[in-house]
Specification:
There is one protein chain. The strands form two sheets. A seven-stranded mixed beta sheet has the order 1-2-3-4-5-6-7. The chain is of the alpha/beta class. 31% of the residues lie in helices and 18% in strands. It has one domain: Ribonuclease Z/Hydroxyacylglutathione hydrolase-like (Metallo-beta-lactamase, Chain A, 4-Layer Sandwich), CATH 3.60.15.10. The protein is globular and about 50 Å long. The longest helix is centred in the N-terminal third of the chain and has 20 residues. The chain has nine helices and twelve strands. Helix 3 packs across helix 5 and helix 7 runs antiparallel to helix 9. The structure holds zinc ion. The site of zinc ion has 4 residues, from loops.
Length: 303
């Protein structure tokens, strides 16, 4: 470290300290920084794999993949501003920013950030991405509660094993079926809970010339839980099974030419892109059918 940098850091520290002392209510909580949320390999064996970098890539039209290899982040662009879906892990934020820039888009033009579900591996980077962009964060009531507090609540099937993450300001609470707009962009929220109470699937249309496709970012449908949680009889989350069933039904009826999932591997995104078989209007139907089978298996173990 050279002296100038050292001096600048020292001055920066003193300035932050002065700011914190002069306006404690406005001071940024140190808890919202990424450095306080590093999950070790022992805590999170999957994190290293999820975090392998991935080059940003056009999925279709104005829809771009800007996430890491194992955690999706989707950018939908327009001349009037962009929408970003999901923020990966806390550690994913810098690579999402770099991917957006590598596509020659400005992070500051991201006007809206939304989320699939509020676990650390999809909402962990939102605080930093919100700060970098100044975007409004919108979420379902339950997800909003979690994102604002930077952790899941007792109604989370994974309560106790899901890590906490930097809390982010959620400016807008959405309702099921809401369409959110940025300029000419419009994305619609579909509540598809079960994996978490606030789980949200997003749908929109993207075009290349006169060819348009319905794109669905389908939230995780896996019945994963902490030890001792029962989807069939949870007091904390009594509507878990009904939420799953509702979600399967919603997914099976969406216009779904291109399916994307928060973990790209779950819907074999890379294989489908490589083989040129990305478009499949039955994709959400088979996704919902597979999830329904997995839930039935899980339910059988609980009886
Ligand atoms: Zn999850």
């Amino acid at each position: 470290m050279n002296f100038t940098l050292f001096a600048r850091l020292r001055i920066g520290t003193l300035l932050s300290l002065a700011l914190a002392l002069s306006s404690p209510a406005k001071a940024q909580s140190p808890d919202s920084t990424r450095a306080n949320y590093v999950y070790s390999a022992a805590q999170c064996p999957s994190c290293a794999d999820w975090s392998v970098p991935h080059q940003p890539i056009r999925i279709f039209g104005n829809t771009w993949y800007v996430g890491t290899n194992g955690l999706s982040a989707i950018l939908i662009t327009s001349p009037e501003g962009h929408i970003l879906i999901d923020g990966g892990l806390p550690a994913s934020a810098p690579s999402i920013v770099a991917n957006i820039r590598a596509l020659n888009f400005r992070v500051e033009d991201v006007k809206l950030i939304v989320n699939s579900h509020a676990h650390y591996d999809h909402a962990g980077g939102i605080a930093e991405l919100q700060r970098a962009s100044g975007a409004e964060v919108a979420a379902s009531p339950s997800s909003g509660r979690w994102i604002r507090s930077g952790k899941s609540w007792p109604d989370d099937p994974q309560f106790g094993i899901a890590f906490s993450y930097p809390p982010a300001p959620v400016a807008r609470t959405i309702a099921d079926g809401d369409t959110l707009r940025v300029g000419s962009l419009a994305i619609t929220a579909h509540f598809t809970g079960g994996h978490t109470p606030g789980g949200t699937t997003w749908s929109w249309r993207s075009c290349e010339g006169s060819v348009c496709h319905g794109i669905v970012y389908a939230d995780s449908q896996s019945p994963i839980s902490a030890e001792g949680f029962f989807f069939t009889r949870s007091k904390e989350y009594p509507t878990a099974l009904a939420d799953f069933e509702h979600g399967f039904d919603v997914l099976a009826h969406l216009q779904c030419d291109i399916l994307i999932t928060p973990h790209p591997s779950v819907s074999r995104l890379w294989e489908r892109m490589e083989s040129g078989a990305l478009t499949d209007s039955d994709a959400c139907k088979w996704f919902a059918a597979g999830a329904r089978q997995a839930l039935a298996k899980r339910v059988a173990t609980e009886r």
